[in-house]
Write a structure and sequence with these properties.
Oligomer: single chain
Strand content: 15-25%
Subunit structure: Homodimer.
Strand order of the largest sheet: 2-1-3-10-4
Largest sheet: 5 strands, mixed
Number of domains: 2
Organism: Haematobacter genomosp. 1
Protein name: Thiamine pyrimidine synthase
Helix content: 40-55%
Number of strands: 10
Order of helices and strands: HEHHEHEHEEEHEHEHEEHHHHHH
Radius of gyration: 19 Å
InterPro entries: NMT1/THI5, SsuA/THI5, TAT_signal
Family: Belongs to the NMT1/THI5 family.
CATH architecture of the largest domain: 3-Layer(aba) Sandwich
């Protein structure tokens, strides 16, 4: 089975390699090569890409595809900026902030999670029912300065609460992080859909509330120069990914086992041993992919992006005015589905 993780050391080495390549061969010399970085360890949250690879959909599109697991949403974006990855998955809020305020040369080529995939997980003994309940608590999250923290800050500000009242600590984005709550070391933790399903299945003590912030939940980003120079490989990537995502989303929950088996035989994926929980996990993630309708799988929905820019501006989380349509493109997806 395939399991790959990119460490910070790997990123620094890759960045150094990029500098050397600047005077020679381009990082995108072979247009059929396509590398993808997930923000964290492989889970069924990334089932669309993992299934597409396991089924050979990328190969069918002429891509030499390789998936890697990164060390956070910001790290994934940095690898794409450094031209060491063709595309990566990151949070919508995180992407918009980095693009608008920091000039990151990234473009959203697709939205995979139409809603935030994050949940606040706490105990029944001391539950979090609203953002107000987070004030004064220690909250665990997989990356500091990434999409989870951005979602937390936006929801706190939108609710009239100060984000500074929440102490943040870094934890793994897995259901096992619930042990920190049981040990009294955290009052809650933020996890993705897969972590939430795992935590609820493993203990009868956990409760979870969704973090619906009105943003594009999770997006696939690419370097804008690479998109302009090599659009065909992104069209191929999106065609194969859309095929996998729609197949999963249209499969009844009770019939997902063959898909999970196929993914698990190709990749080391968290949460597949408990098959009942795995079905719930993949099904819940797929419902997010089609939250704006099956016709909008992978689509950057214009109304969502316009609302996101407006909300972030009102919350003071982006400092410059921006045309929402400059942040994304649907042209590649349209070509893929034509």
């Amino acid at each position: 089975m395939h399991s790959a993780n990119l460490s910070r050391r790997g990123f620094l080495c890759a960045t150094g390699a990029a500098a050397l390549l600047a005077t020679g061969t381009s990082a995108f010399a072979q247009s059929t090569d396509f590398s993808f970085i997930a923000p964290f360890s492989f889970s069924l949250a990334f089932g669309d890409v993992l299934y597409a690879d396991a089924m050979g959909f990328y190969r069918d599109e002429g891509l030499n595809f390789k998936a890697e697991a990164g060390k956070g949403a910001s790290f994934a974006a940095q690898m794409v900026i450094a031209k060491q990855m063709s595309a990566g998955r990151t949070g919508g809020t995180n992407f918009i902030q980095s693009r608008v305020d920091n000039g990151a040369p990234l473009l959203s080529i697709a939205t995979i999670a139409q809603l935030s995939p994050f949940y606040i997980i706490s105990s029944k003994e001391n539950p979090v029912r609203s953002m107000e309940d987070l004030e004064g608590r220690t909250v665990g999250m997989a990356s500091l300065g990434g999409s989870m923290e951005g979602t937390l800050d936006l929801l706190m500000r939108s609710g009239g609460h100060s984000p500074e009242t929440v102490k943040r600590v870094k934890v793994a984005d897995t259901g096992a992080s619930y042990a920190l709550i049981q040990a009294g070391r955290a009052g809650a933790f933020i996890g993705n859909t897969s972590s939430m399903i795992t935590a609820l299945a493993a203990t009868g003590d956990a409760v979870a509330i969704p973090m619906d912030d009105g943003m594009p939940g999770q997006v696939y980003v690419a370097h804008d120069e690479d998109v302009a120079a090599n659009p065909d490989k992104f069209v191929a990537f999106l065609r194969a990914t859309h095929r996998a995502a729609l197949t999963i989303a249209q499969t009844p929950k009770e019939e997902l086992d063959p898909i999970i088996d196929r993914i698990a035989t190709r990749f080391d994926v968290l949460g597949t041993a408990d098959r009942g929980a795995a079905r719930e996990d993949l099904y819940a993630n797929a419902q997010n992919w089609i939250a704006k309708g099956s016709e909008n799988v992978l689509r950057n929905v214009p109304e969502v992006w316009a609302n996101a820019v407006s909300m972030l501006g009102e919350a003071g989380m982006i400092k410059k005015p921006v045309d929402p349509t400059s942040l994304y493109t649907n042209a590649l997806l349209d070509r893929a589905l034509a």
